[in-house]
Write a structure and sequence with these properties.
two-stranded parallel sheet; two-stranded antiparallel sheet; 6 helices; 131 residues; 35% helix; alpha+beta; single chain
Length: 131
């Protein structure tokens, strides 16, 4: 509601931030974990005022001069999102201490990473959505 209410002012505020990765409603490390995002310093810092660094990593889309990545997530995860009228399927993130199936979801995700296959997806989704 707040983002909709602020509209262009919110987008302008994000555009004005001089950080290499910005996350809205999600853990900032998610920008690092998504390899499509550039991660690192906002460009243009001189050597005598380094701030967040001088370079970026990832950037799998190979943009010539990435400025920043912005990642958005829902304000509430499932099932609270549906209770409040936000129809997203974002499960409770693994890093939430209240996620009851984080260990099981992580184990299944690891198996999928080692041996990818569609057969793993139903188990991953079931564990994640029960978190």
């Amino acid at each position: 509601k707040t983002i909709k209410k602020l509209g262009a002012e919110f987008e302008d505020a994000l555009a004005g931030l001089k950080y290499g990765a910005i996350c809205v409603n999600v853990w900032n490390a998610l920008a690092f974990l998504l390899s499509q995002c550039s991660w690192g310093a906002f460009p243009g810092h001189p050597f005598n005022d380094i701030q967040s660094g001088m370079d970026v990593v990832h950037n799998t889309f190979l943009f010539d001069k990435p400025q920043k990545s912005v990642v958005y997530g829902p304000f509430r995860s499932l099932p609270r999102s549906w209770i409040h009228g936000d129809l997203n399927l974002m499960p409770k993130p693994l890093w939430y201490i209240t996620n009851k199936t984080a260990h099981l979801t992580a184990k299944r995700l690891t198996r999928f990473a080692v041996n990818p296959g569609v057969r793993h997806l139903p188990g991953i989704f079931a564990a994640a959505l029960q978190g």
